[in-house]
Amino acid sequence: MSVPELRSWRAARPHVMRVAGAVRPRLARATAAVRPRIARLARATAPRPAPGTRPRTWRYTAGAATAGLALAAGVVTAAGPWHATGQRTAERDRAAALERTGGADHGYGSDSFGTAAGAPRPAPSAASVLTGLGAAAGPVRAVPAGTGLARVLDPLLDDPVLGDRRAAAVADLTTGERLYGADAGAALTPASTTKLATAVAALSALGPDHRLTTRAALEPGTGNLVLVGGGDPTLSAREDTGGAASLRTLARETAEALKKRGLRRVTLSYDTTLYAGPGMHPIGVNDNLAPVTALMADEARTDGSTSGPAPRAADPAADAADAFARFLRGHGIEATAPGPAEATGRARTLATVSSPPLAALVERMLTESDNDLAEALVRHTALASGKRPDFAGASAAVAARLKSLGLPVAGASFHDGSGLDRADRVTPGLLTALLVKAADPARPELRPVLTGLPVAGFTGTLTSRYTEGAAGLVRAKTGTLTGVNALAGTVVTEDGRLLAFAFLTSGATDPQAAQAALDRAATALAHCGCG
């Protein structure tokens, strides 16, 4: 198979080759050691599809438990080219050859965000930091506890640029053993590292194959058409949806169904009653988050962006319904100006569109620190848990899910799913426990928590960080609010061991300096032969 060299690869080649030279020895050693054990784990952990389950959908889950583990042992130094998002195209080829799926490339192209119709086929993630994932025994040794990590981390975490409060924990991802703790039980403001808890709770409650469905329903015996929001903030009104559910497709299929019934004029309304309570986050109007509602298109962004802060529509549901009405008119259906109304239980569904699977949504949420997705996923967690789908009920549902998984929730307090609320409190011990749980071979449904973490120097919120030293070796969720800096993820050490770490700080006055200090701490772990 011939793969053309991309312009992005030509530009990135010098940097990638420097990274490759730095990580080749340690990952080659780890790969050789872990290969036999991964083969055993793959056979042991492969899920069995239940009767009636779609085979292709089950391959996605199986991919998280088997191909994800096998690809985790691959070496990041394999020849390019690289995708513009930082993923090696060689990984895609290898996955196709193995006829397996798993991970994602964390981009938003039409071939990278799953498919709205049919089963998902995400590409494998750049996986160097997943070396040894899920291992319980064998040649890859656990890191012995002792003073080595303290000697490395204590001076770095004592840096005054980190503010007046700091807490940290490091654990062995293969055993869960705590290797280092500095106030590891202290509950501090976690900022966006809260999304790790959101991800674990949502995947546990709903499963990785769950999809969010938006529908159009017709009230019987009338011309009343209702656009029913399914709580999918990735629903897109754009021509190129990047694999997300398409509002245009929903309008086209609805128009076809209406014409079959002899209807060419409808009274249009929209239903947002899937969620409860106020939609405005406690932070108020903010470019980091749209008002939380069960119906919106493109996260209510008004500037054409796909990630990051952006101006938002004041009424996302009304804007989405207006777009739906325009699309209906384009297909020969006249629609009144839409208004809010709840669909009755008798309303007949005419057409539906569904999001990519939850596994892909979780990966996007973590890679891009997507606040809109985070708030949606905690509300779906609440619905699956019998809780009221508002800020309070969703937060209670997350805490209950984590407790049911046996995670150390003492001291933790959740007030949203995104981490934008400064009242949130999480401990470093809980953050590392979440990562350890996600690596558990008995919990393949949680694997997207790890595959969604940004890769240092390549993807998401870590794209421009770790450009030297630990690029490709650190994979972590970032967290930043005024005076708050956090980092939690996984790292491959000098001798090929895999650690989970969490650093929480508050009181910093220079956010860039604090961020750099945390990056130095994670880099030190990567270069640590502390065992």
TrEMBL record:
Record flagged with keyword Hydrolase: yes
Matches recorded under SUPFAM superfamilies: beta-lactamase/transpeptidase-like
Keywords noted in UniProt: Carboxypeptidase, Hydrolase, Protease
Molecular function in Gene Ontology: serine-type carboxypeptidase activity
GO biological processes: peptidoglycan metabolic process; proteolysis
Positions of region (Disordered): 101-125
InterPro entries from the UniProt entry: Beta-lactam/transpept-like, Peptidase_S13
Bias-annotated ranges (Low complexity): 116-125
DNA repair among keywords: no
NCBIfam families to which the protein is assigned, alphabetical: PBP4 (TIGR00666)
PANTHER family associated with the record: D-ALANYL-D-ALANINE CARBOXYPEPTIDASE, PENICILLIN-SENSITIVE CARBOXYPEPTIDASE A
Family: Belongs to the peptidase S13 family.
Annotated protein name in UniProt: D-alanyl-D-alanine carboxypeptidase
Organism: Streptomyces cyaneogriseus subsp. noncyanogenus
